[in-house]
Amino acid sequence: MTNHTQKLQNLMQRVNISSFKALSRDAAVSERQILHLRHGKLEQMRVDVLFKLSQVLKISLSELIETFSSLSCREAVNSVSPHSQLPSETEIAELKVEYQRSQLQLAQQREILTQEFQQSSLQLLESLLLQWPTAAQKAQENPQLAAIKIVPLVQNSLERLLQDWGIEAIAPVGAEVAYNPQMHQLMAGTAQPGEIVKVRYTGYLQGEKLLYRAKVSPV
What we know:
The chain is α+β, with helices and mostly antiparallel strands. It has nine helices and seven strands. A four-stranded mixed sheet has the order 2-4-7-3, with no helix packed on it. It has a three-stranded antiparallel sheet with strand order 1-5-6.
């Protein structure tokens, strides 16, 4: 099986596309189509798919075909469909319009998702946003104000946000736990797995994914 993966990766690198998944998203084509291109099955791909890929990779359609097929440009396009010809100027213009429309839709979807994410986060942080400026001002006016009165305001909002995102603390600050190099990061000294260490800064997990290791020190 012909493998054009390196050729495709070289073209992707020129336009700062980091993965085949990102290429699929930016070109609005399926990852299966990209797999066809990588495996030298260009003749099984539709012209409009090839055109979308060429636009994202910033090369001409003919250059894309010549790069990934041993056939000439016309032979390759004709092999896609026995009755097809190279796209006319009108067809190319229509493909460009369709490509631009899909790109606009993707941009709009990203903007909508970003706004929804921001709104949901703001709702979780509502009490902090509304009360923190007043609490901070009172603390500046009265340096004797006990910080313990302000801590719950921040802590409650943060806990709500973390809970909504499915993020859990590895261990509370001050806890003494068995040292696990995968979950804990030593701030100083040495410790063997299983030895007791004290948590100085908590770490976080999101499901099974480790976000931050807890910082610990030997007891």
